[in-house]
């Protein structure tokens, strides 16, 4: 029955996404993609709507036994969705990377990227306080949640890339989780599959609001993994984020035949 959530989510959003796309187009909420084409931006707002719908539904049918797990999911997605939307509306390229945004904040200059970094850190601490079993687990969870959010943002530079990353990690995670986290993740897999054709063909951009939401979903899910997997995942995320400070992820992908094939597949 749990996979019914995935099916319902997929078909519901297959119907709704074209309506949102048309609404964005009519309102002129368009942005140039990496090719210079004007397409609807911030379609990732569907992930915000998704968490609101699924959380209300779960609380109605499942009750309060899983209230805290649903709460952290909802707060995490709403917080990072809001900061992502702020970045989509008001962001600029004056500073890039975590180091760049922190330098701006230290000089008392507020950027949307800085706001996103601070909000991401605060919400990661809040969620880790609730979900962690001990102090070591607490710090590992902070790293995973905050850096997973940034990781999806790093991938979201070409059509479909961030969604492929999300689906790869999320489908793999289904073998490691159960209960309410599995149901919540299945709903996000459903909406992501429904939106994938629009993103991968370059007809829409999900924007920072989309990559932020999907990133924190993966981060929260990963807090339920066993400690060995979490340590390995934390190391991977730290190394990837450090690499991105000085090197281009896109160039890395283009220089790898396997990664480039997977990146281009479906476009």
UniProtKB/TrEMBL annotation:
Keywords: Membrane, Transferase, Transmembrane, Transmembrane helix
Transmembrane domains' residue ranges: 6-24, 44-62, 68-86, 106-132, 138-155, 167-196, 216-239
Molecular function (Gene Ontology), one example: transferase activity
Identification of the protein by name: UDP-N-acetylmuramyl pentapeptide phosphotransferase/UDP-N-acetylglucosamine-1-phosphate transferase
Species: Maledivibacter halophilus
